[in-house]
Design goal:
The chain is elongated and about 85 Å long. Helix 1 runs antiparallel to helix 4 and helix 5 packs antiparallel against helix 6. It has 154 residues and is mainly α. 80% of the residues lie in helices and 0% in strands. It contains 6 helices and no strands.
């Protein structure tokens, strides 16, 4: 049985949440799927355009999450943006009377995505902290050695 490291699990979770966000991007290309996914069937061109735009924005967030899986410097800002987006959608769905019932599973998927993203951020941050601590100890040891060894500089 293969044992995955915390770092690998964290990256996989970032990737999974990224793919979850990329998937709705297909709606931008196939607006007929709006009724299937969101329960929205509208002849209103403006409403359809807004939902398609939402799909594009989700896909862009998904691409950012996929990039953050392998680029540590992107993780904090991408996690913040993803969390704000997901929390706002969840809050809007649960506080809007008469919201279509098909939005509830979408909101619950966002809850799951938030849990996965939080876990990923924790696992990768813990690993990053361990690496930084080890690097700092190594640097301190070299500095101490340089101080005690005559003729050697750090």
């Amino acid at each position: 049985m293969m044992r995955l490291s915390a770092r690998t699990i964290g990256k996989l979770l970032f990737g999974a949440v990224g793919l979850l966000n990329v998937a709705p991007g297909l709606i931008a290309l196939t607006p007929s799927q709006l009724a299937t996914v969101y329960g929205v069937m509208s002849d209103d061109v403006t409403g359809t355009l807004l939902l398609r735009h939402r799909a594009v924005m989700l896909a862009l967030l998904g691409v950012a999450l996929l990039a953050a899986a392998v680029m540590p410097r992107l993780r904090t800002p991408v996690v913040i943006v993803a969390a704000v987006g997901k929390l706002s959608f969840i809050a809007l769905v649960w506080t809007t009377p008469g919201a279509h019932p098909k939005l509830t599973p979408v909101a619950l998927a966002d809850v799951g995505a938030l849990v996965a993203l939080g876990t990923a951020a924790f696992l990768l941050r813990a690993r990053t902290t361990q690496v930084r601590t080890a690097e700092a100890r190594t640097a301190e040891a070299r500095t101490a050695e340089a101080r005690t060894t005559p003729g050697r500089t750090a």
